User: Fold this.
Amino acid sequence: MAQEPTAQGAAKHKVRIWDLPTRLFHWLLAATVIALVVTAKLGGNAMNWHVLLGHVMLALLLFRLLWGLVGGRWSRFASFIHAPSALLRHLRGQGAESDSAGHSPLGALSVLAMLAVLIAQVGSGLLSDDEIAFSGPLSRFASGDTVAQATAYHAHWGQYLLYALVALHLLAIVFYAWRGRGLVRAMVTGDKQLSAPVPASRDTAGSRWLALALAFGAGAAAWWVQQLGGAF
Assistant:
């Protein structure tokens, strides 16, 4: 953790908040979401890519669930838990530096909501059947009613919920950029300039090798799911 003087003379603490695996996951997730939306809208032969990207998304989400348990300090789900009082302080603009070093109380709720909606979207895709060319690998294990409900959710409500959360996420980025807090830069470099010191995230060669092993495991699990049946 390094200290750097600001133009006003006050010390700033440079802290590693986002470890490399978290940053790679974030940008891969963003690219995959965009690609999934584009291929779904194009339809036709692009649906073959949509199917493949759906399994990539499954692998990414499985990795993030695991990394949320063993990753860097601010990437762990334990750091997402804030007391109601911390959320109220944040909404009033009176939050402590440690409350927003990683995800702010409101930001943590947003991330959890995004993960939940993405998991629901992928899960419903695995159960979907368009009765034309594609059927999810898990559809043969579910009842007809369940498959119909999953298909309807995946094609309609699920994607609209996802669009809404993505829009809120982009608005938050613009808002914090306007307030002089660059969220995007921190997710690129991994570091934040904080006015008070906080514990840094572990981001060592050992932790990165662990992340790589977990990524391979998540990819293998997604491949296994794909082998259970058709495509979604």
